[in-house]
Amino acid sequence: MAAVTEAPARAHELDAFAAAVAGCTRCRLAQGRTQVVFGAGNADADLLFVGEAPGFHEDRLGVPFVGQAGKLLERLLAGIGLTRDDVYIANVLMCRPPGNRDPQPDEIAACEGYLFRKLALIQPRVVATLGNFATKLLSGRPQGITRVHGREQEATLAGRRVLLYPLYHPAAALYTPAMLQVLESDFARLPELLGREAQPVAPAPVAAPVAPAAAPPAAAVQLDLF
Ligand code: URA
Predict the structure, then answer these.
(1) Staple partner for 170: which of 15, 72, 130, 200, CB 3.0–4.6 Å?
(2) 131 belongs to a structural domain
(3) Model confidence over 184-197: pLDDT tens digits?
C-alpha cells in the first residue's frame, strides 16, 4: 500500500515545493509575471479545485482566486458549508498570461508537472476542474465543459484514483444567470461526492507522471487540448 503522508508533513512539503518553484522560468510567462501563484489552501484537503491561470489580482497578491471569480467561488463554497481553508485551490498555469489571454499548449505542458506534483502531495479525493482548460488537461479528453459539467468521472491522477468533477468556471458564471444556476446545482453535489469511498489504484495510470521540481517538463501526454 502506498505510504500516506501525514497532514503537517504535507504542508511542509508543499511549502518547500512552492519555494523551489518560485523562480520558475520554464516558459515565457516568467517574463511578464509579478510572481508565481503556486496555489493556496488546506494541504490535507479532500477537495482540490483547479482553475485556469492567475489574473491581474492573483498576480499581484500571489494567491489564486482573489478577484471577482474568487468571491463567487467563496460564495459557492459557503453554500455547501465550506470555506477556502477547507479546500485547496490551484490553477493549470502558475503565472499570469499577458492580458489574461488563453493558456498556450506549450505553457500548459511546461506547468502540468507542477500541478501533478501538487496532486501527489495533497492526495485529494475529489478534483473539481473549473472551466475548459483544467477539465481537458486532467480528463485527457477533448470534450468541452458544456458537455461534461456536473458529471463526475473516475480518473487516475498522479497514480491515484480520484473523482474528477468538471464545473463551469466561476468567471463565466459571473454575468450569466443561467450558467450560475447550473454551477450552483453542480456545486450542491460536491458533499455527496466527497462522501464516496475512493476506488483502489487502477493497474494502468492514464495521466502524466509526476515531475520533480527541478527536472525538465514531464513528457507531454497526448491531450488534444484544442
Ligand atoms: N481565474 C482562474 O482561473 N484562476 C485564478 O486564480 C483566478 C481567476
Answers:
(1) 72
(2) yes
(3) 999 999 999 999 65
